[in-house]
Amino acid sequence: MDRPTALIPRHYVAIGGHGPEDVVADARGRVLTGVADGRILRIDGLTQPRAARVELLAETGGRPLGLELLPDGALLVCDTERGLLGVDLADGTVRVVADEVEGERLRFTSNVVALSDGSVYFTVSSRRYPLDQWIGDIVEHTGTGRLLRLAPGDDTPEVLLEGLQFANGVAASGDESFLVLAETGARRLTRYWLDGPLAGRAEPFAENLPGMPDNVWRGGPDGPIWVSLAGPRVPPLDLLHRAAPPVRRAAARIAVRAPYRPTGGIGVLAVDDTGEIVHHLARNRSGFRMVTSVCEASGHLVLGSLWERGIALCEPPAAK
């Protein structure tokens, strides 16, 4: 992998809420995000960051994570407490799209993508740990993540993949023939085929990433898939993942009780539909920490974070 180019936050936009975990951009260059108290916010005016405006769109009553804008202007929300939600951005109405699968309550839904045929695919990060104990799943390496599909017109999702290591971001290839999933706990991207002779099968797409992938975002079929790196590679953690399950469980019990503070290193990747990394941007010491999402908007790379109280705006990389 080539040496990374600098990822330098140029502007910080406070949004009046904690933990803008996912950021997505609309056609007008505005950024939508969800924060810890359940609000869905829209940030406008990023061409002049010091005068950016924050607008309240809706309140989910839970904790929103991954977002997906639909062609009709509605918004899909993965809410870690309430399941998969739909938001009417015109009036702020929130409805439950799906809140159980196979008789089990949906918890820790993480990221979602909608395809042109109306089907919706979304991830569940962990069936064992809640959001506020996410580090326990990373340490124990439970492999309880899932990929789910909701067919057009259905209100009951089906499970497509199980055994994922903290399933997180999800995006479609340019031709929608496969999905790209982020497995945070395995530091890899996984391809799940939707069409062709391999339909229904999963395979590695990009492995041994330089950090732990979180949310992913694609602005259009011709652009790359942007991948946020929520934390660096931790070699002792790689060793722990090869230990026996009782050892990992004991370590997880310690981890969820220990105070967590993210490192100052941040990073993002962009990959194409062959799995090649076309951009790698990183910074070892940054005032903005724990990058859990990235998108492009109004000439900026926009960073979201489960840790921060705002978003960061960075210079986009030069085209290759």
Automatic annotation (TrEMBL):
<protein>
    <submittedName>
        <fullName>Strictosidine synthase</fullName>
    </submittedName>
</protein>
<dbReference type="Pfam" id="PF03088">
    <property type="entry name" value="Str_synth"/>
</dbReference>
<comment type="similarity">
    <text>Belongs to the strictosidine synthase family.</text>
</comment>
<dbReference type="GO" id="GO:0016787">
    <property type="term" value="F:hydrolase activity"/>
</dbReference>
<keyword id="KW-0597">Phosphoprotein</keyword>
<feature type="domain" description="Strictosidine synthase conserved region">
    <location>
        <begin position="116"/>
        <end position="196"/>
    </location>
</feature>
<keyword id="KW-0325">Glycoprotein</keyword>
<dbReference type="InterPro" id="IPR011042">
    <property type="entry name" value="6-blade_b-propeller_TolB-like"/>
</dbReference>
<dbReference type="Pfam" id="PF20067">
    <property type="entry name" value="SSL_N"/>
</dbReference>
<dbReference type="InterPro" id="IPR018119">
    <property type="entry name" value="Strictosidine_synth_cons-reg"/>
</dbReference>
